[in-house]
């Protein structure tokens, strides 16, 4: 019998207690920023597979490639969600099937792991969670670490697309016009939201948005904040019937979505195109707080 998950966030102790259990798959989905010669982020990303192989991973964890296998790498925008068939194939290749308990983690405080969790949720698979603190916390606690590849045991995953978990640009435009009722939450860093600095050519945010940066959802050890702190961060939108989250490319927004589900919000959707799509249209309204 697979371990039972009661929250979209599980502790390292929970994972340690269930390592090796039947019908449980642990997936490292780390993605690393590409930096220039001065160490500055370029806005591009590379797979964390090398880090997984050489620096280690949770024992038994397989590696999931969010850049290629778990995204539509043929799409115009990076990290575009794959269609149902493509995701089902990728999830099955990782050994995920109906009834499989999935624990995702990364080395960056959870946004990449949250992305896989959201993709699984959107595909109707609720037996999934994010490892709180990710690999950094796991290693810092002195827990066992293995190196080298773990080959998945392929399975058959059948996706059942859940309605309402994704929204597109026309829906967000309708929210901005007031034709649709929803609260908008941006998970980007405050400087980018305010229009001060960032890798995107156009800075700012979609009009009417609230800023809850995904980096502020975790503490210095990369553990998610306590529920009361999360509720305070999202207080401006918790009474909204529907909340739409977005960021630059839909990754940080996944962490915001996870946090909203943690505090009990039932109707959360992710704008997958996020600001990469929104700012690609010169006519799309964009606000900035910076003078």
Provide a count of the helices: 10
Radius of gyration equals 18 Å
Write down the CATH topology of the largest domain. Oxidized Rhodanese, domain 1
- What would you say the CATH architecture of the largest domain is? 3-Layer(aba) Sandwich
Average the pLDDT over all residues and give the rounded result. 94
**Proportion of residues in helical segments:** 25-40%
Low-confidence stretches: none
Number of domains: 2
The CATH superfamily of the largest domain appears as Rhodanese-like domain
Please report the first level of CATH classification, the CATH class of the largest domain.
Alpha Beta
Characterise this structure:
The chain has ten helices and twelve strands. The chain is of the alpha/beta class. The protein folds into two domains: about 10-140, Oxidized Rhodanese, domain 1 (3-Layer(aba) Sandwich); about 165-280, Oxidized Rhodanese, domain 1 (3-Layer(aba) Sandwich). The strands form three sheets. The protein has a five-stranded parallel sheet with strand order 1-7-6-2-5. Strands 8-12-11-9-10 form a five-stranded parallel sheet. Strand 6, helix 4 and strand 7 form a beta-alpha-beta unit. Helix 4 crosses helix 9 (about 250-260). The longest helix is centred in the middle third of the chain and has 12 residues, at about 110-120. It is globular.
